[in-house]
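Exercise 7. Given the components listed, write out the predicted structure of the assembled complex. Treat all entries as one system.
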Amino acid sequence: MPEEKISTADASKREGSTGRPVRADAQRNVEALLEAALAVFAKSGVDAPVREIADAAGVGVGTFYRHFPQRADLVAAVFRHEVDACADAAPILASEHEPGEALARWMQRYADFIATKRGLASALHSGHPAYGALHAYFNERLQPALAGLLKAAATAGEVRGDVEPEELLRAVGSLCMQASDDGRDQTRRMVALLVDGLRYGAGTARGDR
Amino acid sequence: MPEEKISTADASKREGSTGRPVRADAQRNVEALLEAALAVFAKSGVDAPVREIADAAGVGVGTFYRHFPQRADLVAAVFRHEVDACADAAPILASEHEPGEALARWMQRYADFIATKRGLASALHSGHPAYGALHAYFNERLQPALAGLLKAAATAGEVRGDVEPEELLRAVGSLCMQASDDGRDQTRRMVALLVDGLRYGAGTARGDR
DNA sequence: CTTGTAAACGGAACATAGTTCCACATCTAA
DNA sequence: TTAGATGTGGAACTATGTTCCGTTTACAAG
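Answer.
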């Protein structure tokens, strides 16, 4: 279900919709680009120049754009499996903790994911239409994950039930934009504050923690 | 004391530190640029091209850069008095409402300010060093304003006392980055959620009431 | 009023970015 | 082996921030 055409860069070795197989060299170049991008993003952030990534992969920019029509498509492809991992963490946390605690932990998990990718959050929230696909994929995978946790916690009376998961995702994403250096603790505190906001006014609102 | 050298573009008509008076045409151009910028920012957002602003003001880009060494300096100059207005709203709200309510209202006031300036929040949080002065000015004026409200509310036992005003400012700024269209309500809800987070577990400070 | 000159001006030019284009190279099926 | 679809590289185009510098202008001193 989560398979969207987030970029041209999937289609495992077998043929595309045309019937003709993907050329081996093309396949190689796509992989080289993804690998190079991961490294370059880690070193220079998500905003690294296209040329830098193409050079690192040993291909020309033309090749880059053949496989990733827009810069953002590369970003999307690179982070796709990390998004999946984050989504998959939800049911696991749910099985290990009380509903409220699971929710709180997942929110931090999500925050950590975003925060460690320099520039990812900014890119996502830049409003630039090029990141629409990435944004869509984030919602597609993460919203159901969060929705489950949220509903369970609300049913258990641990948090209020009138907040949309999509809003929360966006909010946490926003909070993580500051990035890097000493801000990690601060980000965690702000996410925790948001979660406490969810708790406020649920059945169990007493002073503690 | 809020007078910092946020840009080259202050110094009211009188002489600068050199002793020589500011030339009248220069003075005019600075004003034309500020006025044009306000209009262009409203229409095209804070990210509008320098040339567009220069054209609107009827000056060349060279003149632009003479008065505002960096694009960001213009942004800072344009929003300076709006920041002041926001800061000044704090004591007024404090005198009209209960501490907790005053805090909540000011947070929304601040959020509205940021949110209505397309791209302002993004610029502030872009991490780009050019916006350092603007960011500093924001903190300089707004942090004391919020600190007062926060302390009063904590003393009244309405909110917890272990949160730094600077963190909150940054958090609200982040939450407002999404901007425009249908997001205003959502932003307000998220800011409210953050405030509820402050209320959750109130009493962490020497409270009474 | 004239004039010397520091100050200000304008916009061409430069640097960096994303993206497009297309002549040429390469792969693959027959 | 070979034809042609597919893929490649990088020059070139666009947009944008910023710098440079020859020219113009304000203004105070004479």
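Discussion: Chain A touches chain B at residues 122, 125-127, 163, 167, 170-171, 174-180, 186, 189-190, 192-201, 205, 207-209 (CB under 8 Å). The longest helix of chain A spans residues 71-96.
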